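thought: fold this chain, then report.
action: predict
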Amino acid sequence: MKIHAFSKTYDGRTVLDFPGMELQPGKIYAVIGANGSGKSTFAKILAGVLKADRKDIHLETDCVGYMPQKNYAFRMTTKANILLNGRDVSRAEELMDAIQLRHLENKRADRLSGGETARMALARLMMKRYDVAILDEPTAAMDMETTSVSEDLIVRYVREMGCTLILVTHSLQQARRIADEVLYFHKGKLLECGSKEQVLYEPQLPETRQFLDFYGV
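observation:
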């Protein structure tokens, strides 16, 4: 599967200039970089919620799942929210058990905490199989325990479904734990891309080394 080159400009300033790349099924691609590096813009354009400068096809599939940074919850139960993306009740209950939400299945989802809402949104996305799933900071509002169970569920979903998963994360530790490949963005450009061993432990560019030294790995 291929991502074609694209760019995004605001008020004459290019905030993202992506050269394109090939994606492999069954792999997790962690997208890292400082704030303002273009990570979320990249995710939004691939998900189709933000337009690039040209209206070309950017991702060679229409079967894309997207979990944004700000998750939404409708005024219905947690279980009903999850079932909006599929009617398989057994699957919904399995996901709630895996992500520690079963005790909240009858609670109104718009009254959940930030971390609970994120877990609900993750379970809702995983009701379907996608060719590409894009998660933008999915565990940012979670504590250590629920981050761990969510990461386990993400890895299991990718392995079972054989999909490609793009994970935007501020956590280098998370990239180290679950990513197969890492994309490092710097000032709107993809500077390094490769296996997590290469990018996180043997970076080729000084900008990448400086970023890793500052944020720690």
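thought: worth noting. The chain has one domain: 2-215.
final: tokens above.
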